[in-house]
Every structure is written in C-alpha cells, then in structure tokens.
Amino acid sequence: MNMKTAGIHHITAFVRDPQKTVDFYAGVLGLRLVKQTVNFDAPEVYHLYLGDEQGTPGTIITFFPWPRSRQGRVGGGQVGVTTFAVPKGALAFWENRLAAFDIPFEKTSRFSETYLAFRDGDGLQLEIVEREAGPLSTWSFGGIPAERAIKGFGGAVLYSMEPGRTAHLLQQVMGLERIGQEGAYIRFRSFGELGNTVDVVANPVERGTGGAGTVHHIAWRAKDDSEHALWREHVLEHGFQTTPIVDRQYFRALYFREEGGIQFEIATDPPGFARDEEPARLGEKLMLPEWFEPRREEIEAKLTPFEVREPEVPRQ
To answer: Residues near 26 by Cβ (< 8 Å), separated by ≥ 6?
Structure first.
C-alpha cells in the first residue's frame, strides 16, 4: 500500500497557565483560539486549539495547560522545534515585534532559509520562517496585519533517539520525500502547502522528559475517514502498534510511537471546529462532548478561567 500524508495536521504541547498561553499565542503571535474544550482523557485539564481563522489542518497548535506540571526537558523522542510560516517579506516585522515584547530571539539558518528562533514562557522551542507557499491569513489580531500574520506551520524539527529509523518511517510509511542533508539536519517534504517541511536532527538526541515546555505529539493529515482507515492498516502492516481509531469530535485520531521515540498521531481533516460552534464564534466558550455535559458544572469548577485579550502592543 502506497500512502502519502499532506503534512502536519496539528502539534500538541504541555504548558502550565492557560491565560499566559493564550496571551502569548493569541496576543503576541496573533493566532486565533478556535476551540476551548478539555482533554478527553483527563477532563480536569483544558485542551486549547489555536490556528488560522477556521483552524485549518496545518495551522493548529494545541495545548494541555496543567498548572501543577513539572518542567519538561526538550530532547530525544520529541518534536524539538515547532516552526511557523509567515509571508515573504514579513520576517523584519516579526523581528521588531518579538523585540518590542522583550522576547529574546536569535537568527539561524538552514537549507538557505533564515529563521527567528525563540521560546514561549514555558520553554517551548519555536521559530518563524518566511515561506511563499500557503494562503495568506485572513485573521488579524493584536495589531498584526493579515499580510504579515502567521499562515500556519512551516514544519517541525524532530529530535529522534534513532534518526535513521525515523527517517525511514517518514519516507516509507508517511510518504514524505527526502530533500537532502545540510550539516546536522535531514530535510523531508510532503505535498501540502503548510506544515509540509520536516527536519530530522541527523545524530541521536538524548532522551527528553515530558512536562511543561515540551511537545506531547505531532499529528499528520488524513484527508477523510476512508483514508484514515487505510492509514491504520498501512501503519500496522509496517509493524507499528497503533491504537484503535478514536473520535476527538473535530477529527478522528489514531496514535503510535515511532522507533525514535516520538509519539505520532494521524488525524482526519474533517469535520473541523465549526461542527458545534458558528464560524464567527469559534473558541468563545467551553465546548464539551456530549458524554461530559452531565458533568459540566463539576468540570468547569476545576478549570482556571481565562480570556482572549488584546495585548498592549508596544510601539514598533
């Protein structure tokens, strides 16, 4: 069976404080909160989704804010760096914006591209790169004009404990094309417009520890339920143990751990985040699956309230 994913569907990370997380990703980075719900496996913890205006696959970063979380250590078996793509010519705007908000950053380069590397308040490693591909954002927030706004994922840097095996999986199972190697990085690319470029650190990386400031998993795109079922067969045929297909309300999901230690998910593009809210009202209130509705009062009492608020934008 020959299968190819379009690229990254979403990336999910651990953080501590929901308000600080929303202030950073919505207020500073300008993403839209498209859904606030709970971790379906631990409903005392939020699951927050931020992305483009509609939460299009390839744009969605999600968070489990757990105030009592230990500090994680970024390392092998994780997505080490999450990359956001902005339009060509927008990098200077983002340099100025990060500086204005006193967010330390450094310029780096690989594969003839310039990156702004920085961290969020929990230590999650992020970067911004200019890319031609992908539609411009239609969402403007926090003083960021749409023509300078983050379009979605540029990709990710994978920290593997077995990089050769991870590279083999990306090509032979996920269907990405190996573009080449530059120094410490091997580049792979899929056919999607966003979330389509993945770099693997070529040397083994010492195992990381989960906790605040680390990525829990990376999810790859399946175009619909029919293809999703084929993906499960495909992964099993290649010798990986995968979960049954799980209903996550806004997509179907299956999970497996690749041999470099990284937790992979494959998620369907549909049905999307407008299945239970009007597109204009996405993310405005806590949405619960029907099986949790009888416990709404109990669940809400355990969650720390937060709001999406306009930042005080420094003069740039």
So the answer is: 32, 33, 50, 141, 142, 308
Residue with tokens 């050769």: 164
pLDDT string in tens for the chain (316-residue length): 789 999 999 999 999 999 999 999 999 999 999 999 999 999 999 999 999 999 999 999 999 999 999 999 999 999 999 999 999 999 999 999 999 999 999 999 999 999 999 999 999 999 999 999 999 999 999 999 999 999 999 999 999 999 999 999 999 999 999 999 999 999 999 999 999 999 999 999 999 999 999 999 999 999 999 999 999 999 999 999 999 999 999 999 999 999 999 999 999 999 999 999 999 999 999 999 999 999 999 999 999 999 999 998 666 5
pTM: 0.97
* Alpha helices (H) along the chain: 18-22, 91-100, 163-172, 225-237, 296-302
Concatenated DSSP letters of 241-258? --PPPEE-SSSEEEEEE-
**∠ Cα 301 51 88 (to 5°):** 155
Instruction: Quote the CA–CA distance of 127 and 117 in Å, as a whole number.
Output: 4
CATH number attached to the domain at 8-302: 3.10.180.10
* Residue recorded with tokens 């195992």: 207
Torsion angle, CA of 99/104/108/114, rounded to 10 degrees? -30
Q: Name the nearest CA neighbour of 70 among 212, 179, 204.
A: 212
Could you tell me the end-to-end alpha-carbon distance of the chain, in angstroms, rounded to an integer? 52
Give the closest residue to 196 by CA, choosing from 57, 91, 94, 62.
57
Instruction: Work out the angle at residue 142's Cα, subtended by the Cα atoms of residues 139 and 144, and round it to the nearest 5 degrees.
Output: 60
For residues 93 and 109, the answer to whether their CB atoms sit within 8 Å is no
| Domain residue limits, the chain | 8-302
